[in-house]
Structures are given as structure tokens and as C-alpha cells.
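Fig. S4 source data, part A: sequence.
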Amino acid sequence: MATGKNPLFDTATTLGKILLFLGVSAICGVLVAGLLVPAAAVSGSAASGSIQFFDTLPAELKVDPPSQATTILAADGSVIANLYTENRTRVSLDQMSPNIKNAIIAIEDSRFYEHGGVDTTGILRALVSTARGNKQGASTITQQYVNNVINSSLEAEGKGDQVLLNGVNKGVGDKLREMKLAIALEKKFTKEQILEGYLNIVFFNRDAYGIEAASKFFFSTTAKNLTLPQAALLAGVVNSPSYYDPITNPENAKVRRDLVLHAMLTQGKIKQAEYDAAVATPVTTKVTQPRQGCPYSKTAPYFCDYVVHLLLNNPAYGADAAERERKIFRGGLTIKTTLDPKAQAVAQAQVDGSAGANPDKWGASLVSVQPGSGKIVSMAQNTVFIPAPGKFNQVQNFNVDVQDAKGNDLNGLGGFQPGSTMKPFTFAEWLNEGKSMNTRLNGAVRRYSPGFPWRNTCPTPTTDSYDDTAGTHDLQNADENHYKYMSVLDGLANSINTITFASASQLDLCGIQKVVDSVGIHGGLPQPNDPHPQVNMTRLSNLIGATQTAPLTMASAFATFANDGKYCEPIAIDSVTDATGAQLPAQTPNCRDAIKPEVARGVAYAMQEVLNRGSGSLIQPRISTRTSFPIAAKTGTNDNNSSTWVAGYTRGLATATWFGDPLGDQQRAGQNVTINGNFYKGIDGYMIAGPQFSNYMAQVAPGYGTDPFPAPPSDMLYGPAPVAPPQDTTPTEQSTTPKEQSTNPATQPSADPKPAPTKSSGKK
């Protein structure tokens, strides 16, 4: 590209022009004598100081592929998003219209096929023209290509301040270096290779690098289909992309385009009739504005952002964050993900329907995974990356952990209190220790004082207590009718807090800890030296979900029960290839035995009862009656109704849905609020998160397998059921008057109010 002022030609006087003419003529003489006849070096016996200087310049140019856009694909090959620093799509020369090849040669380097990299005839012609007061560039296409390659490499290395531009910051030494590299390049590559490289690297617009991107941006077409007027216009833009911009300066662009057409005519590349028709064509554009990055994804912006963070945090993509970012945004990668666009569309419709536009900014999210592989099928939430009227703008992902523990580039919100969706893990340890789900326990016990004899073989001490005589609160259920004896199965189905604690009092808390750890449950807020902090189950309030956990974590944990006890880490990336087609590290299923198969089957049996007759039976529409396939699930709500859940599964799909407060410290109560025109005295898991789950699974689960769950062992179901003794009403054991839910953050009990107390109690 030849544009602007060049220090070589920046003279104000006639004397200066004469001296410049003589000086540059001498340089050209050296080049002709030493290097350029015929485009190769000859004897150096006549070396002068100029030749010696020239000989010290590098003669090798490393031509790396220019920065290219990375594409993120869904599982079916559809595009989720494009990522780039420079919007460029490389195409071969045979995928470019002859019009653009002829036009660029005609206006930029008419002797392209005759010179050996540096055109001495052109230099002398430009020098004479400039000496007469008419500035004219002399860089060949090869020299321009060299300059672009050098600058592209500097940009890729984060050295944009060292970029050299013709007529701006390029000195005589820089120009000579460019010439020598151009000569060497011509010996290494064919003219066609150089022209192809040049047309793929040259700058047209800040949103269009290379001819393919420029064709799409300015005309919504491809380089192969450029018409003669379009090709001539783009060839003219190269000289000064801002001055000849056909969008902002159409008059300037037409003058330059017609100059290109005239050059093509005089050089015999087009006929008079073609020229006449082309110059008579008005300058018009049909802009396709590129939408760079995950925020512009129409399919799954938050899943896309999650995928990008997985790669940014992967050392296989670079030694440091800067190198990984260059690889991802400049490397022309093709990233194929696990996302199912059809399932994603259903998920998005559900969360948008729950709270797509709400002035109080309540959040809704849904994520599902495949048991047996861990592949993420969908990931949606009711917000937008880019602010829009009537929309809830949020840049963080509700479904995942905070991904970058060592930096401030936060991806995930870090999760929410899971409430009673944690209860199945205590139930699983009950079965794991050989106990029957038919065993009846005393649900009237509400006080667990600091000295209570918990069994705990873990080194972590047991914490929390429930005892209003000791300065805390008695353990709460949702209503007074469930402080009584019932089976462990009924306690889980109806989400009774006191039965969960009665179960835990007969178990090793360390056993519950091992279950939770084995199914991948961890805190969503990383610590400096612990990206996946353990959820401490010897903290008693965590038995009923007082910790902060991400929906993806819960979906993957519940998938373990669907997969006969095998836990699979969630994965989002099936394959990654670079611009050459080489395979790069992706994700593969990473599964392990987590719990016994018979235990997983017992939990599945019990959680089907949650939907059939327990807390999940209140979900409308009722999933257990509207589907013809087996499904298991658990509701969950935290203490102040600010975090509500349903997590569940079929044999082929596990899903966690959430609705609640995503703002600030997440302490806003979900009580006495109106959502989508409906008033809620207290939001419960079955009310909003429930229909999200029900509608999604009814539409999507059949495509992933809905075989019956294997039956658990009979002794797990029908073990001895002891006769319930008279209830103990000792004040230290039970409080006879039900209390409101505790608001003590140290205990955070889970107890959802229910409109049908005969079916449910306790936080669900």
C-alpha cells in the first residue's frame, strides 16, 4: 500500500528534491548492480558502503498464517459464534474472482509478473514523479505483502506499537530491509502464492481483513462472486481504507474505483464496454456487520463464554494467558462443542418464559448433561450480555463456577444455595450403610445441641447446632403436621428436614462427605489455592443446602444416579482443529465409579416418589403424569426463598433448573413478590423452577433415552420397619410449636412453605 507522506520524499525545496533524486538513484543503482538483475544477487566485488549495509539486512521472512477468525460450533455443526482479533477468513486464489486479482495488480503493481520483488523501473518512475511534486508510491505487491506479514507478526506478539506504515514511521533502513526480504520471498514462493497471501492479509476495514471478509462486509457476498465494479472498488480501498471507504466516503471511493478501472482498461485486462458499464455503476454497499464474540451468539451466549474460558484456562493452549488468548482469537480454530441447538432452544424458551423480562431482575437458569459422558446438552439463562430494552443485562453465567480463580476475569456467578436438592446425598449414604429406606425415624426431634454425639470419622470437626435453648434455632419443617415418625423414604419424598437430620444422626458424617465428593459436588466460589473447594458436610447446615453450588455441578451430580453410580465430569468441547486441520487438545469423557450401583438405583426409586406423591407432585404441569417415561427429581429451596431448584434425570438426561436472586449477596427474600404478574407469598422450588424442569424434560428427554430405571435390591426397599414408639415430647428433643424458618445465616435451615401440607413439608 502506498499512502501518506514518506520521509524519503519529504522535501520542501527544489535543491532538496535534486539531492533526494541523486541519493535514491544511487541506492537504486546499488540494488540494480548488486541484487536485481535479473531479480537475483550477482557478484559483490563492487561492494560499497551501501551494499555492505544492505548485505547485513535479514534475508529470511517467516511467513506465519495471518490472524484468522475462530469458529465455535454446536454438536450439529451449526455456528454458535465467531471469535477474532482481526475478522479474516482465508481463501485460496481459485476462490477469488479474476476481477479482484486483475484489479489489485492493475492499480498496485502493474509489473507484478515481471519484477523479482522490487521494481526498479517503478522506483525511478515514482522518484521522478515525486520530484515533480506528484507523490507516487513504488512498493510492489511483494513488498506490501512483506510489510503486512511483519506487522501481523508484531500484532500477534502484542507489539502493535512497533508496526511500520508507509509514509508514517518507515525510514530508509526499513525500506531497504523490506526490499531485501521481498527479493528473498520471490525466490521462495511463486507469484500466485504471493498474490494469494497478500489478498488474504491486506487491511480493508477494522471489521474486514483480507478479501473474503471484505467481500462479506461491504457487499454481503464472497470473494469468488465479486463483480467488476465491486472488485475495482475494493482494490481502490487498499490505498487508504478510511479515505476511500465506500460507506463514509462514497464520492472518494468512486473516484478511486474509476481510476482502478481505467488502469485495467489501459493494461488490457478489461474491454471498453466493460469499462463503460462499470464506471456507470453507482457506488452501493450491502453491509453485513460481523458480530464478534460470544455476546452476539443467537444460540447460546453463556455456553459460548464458558467454552472460551475453558480454553483460556487450559495450559495446552499457551504458557500464559496472553499466549492462550492469541491462540484462540487469532488462530483460526474450529471448536466443535457438545451443545444440542434444539435442546438449547427449548431451554432458552423455558427460562425466558419464567422471567425473561422482569424489572426486579430475578434470575432463571437451566443446564442439562448426558449421564455416561458428561456432555453438556444445554445451558441457558434469562439474561442478555448486551443491554437491550426490557431485558435483564448480566455478563456472568448463572450455571457455572467462577472459572478463573487466579484472575479477575470472572465467568460464572459461583452458584446458589441448593437447599433440599442436597438431601438425596444423605439418603444415598443411608442406603450405602446397608439400611432400608423403609426404616421409620422420629421426625419430632428438632434440637441438636453443640454436644450432640455425631459420628464423624473425618478430621474436620462437626459444626452448627439447632437448639433455641442454646442460642440458635430449633430445626424447622414447613408445617406442624410433619414432626412425627415416618420412613426415611417418606422423609425424602416430602423433603422433611427433621428426617434428614434423624438419618444423619445414625450415619458417619464422613460417609456423607465421601458421597458428596465422589459425585463432584464442590463450592462454586474458588479460593486462591483451591479452584474447587470442598463442600464440608460436617457443617450440619450443608445437609440441607446452605453452601453455594453451581447448577452445572448439581446436574452432573444427579447424572451419577442416572448412570448407575458412575460420575462423569462435565465436558463442553468435543474437538478443536487449527487452521491447518491439525487436532488440538479437546475434552474427552472422564468418568469414575462414585457410588454403588444398587445405591444409585435406590435413590432413583425414591426420587421418582418425589414426583409421584411428594414435594415434586406440586409441579404444574405435573411431569409424572404428563410423560410416559420414568423420571426422578428433587425440589429445593433455601431459607429465605431466594434460591429455588429442581434437579432430576431420566436414564439419558440430567437437568438442573434454578430460579431466584442473582444480585449482590443473594440475600433478597423471595417472599411477598410478584413475578410475571403472579403473586408469591414465598417462592418454592415447585413453583417456577419446577415448570422449567417439567416442560424442558417433557420435550427433550425422549430424544436422549427414557428406559426404566433398574430396580434396587428388595431388602433396600422392604427391610424391617420398626414399630414407632410413642413420640418423645421432651422439650430438649422437640419443640411443640412450629416456628417460622430461621434467618440465622449460621444455620440456614431449609423449609419451604407448602399449600398442600399433607403432601409436603420442610423446605423443598
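Fig. S4 source data, part B ends here. Residues 7-56+87-279 form a domain with the Penicillin binding protein transpeptidase fold fold (CATH 1.10.3810.10).
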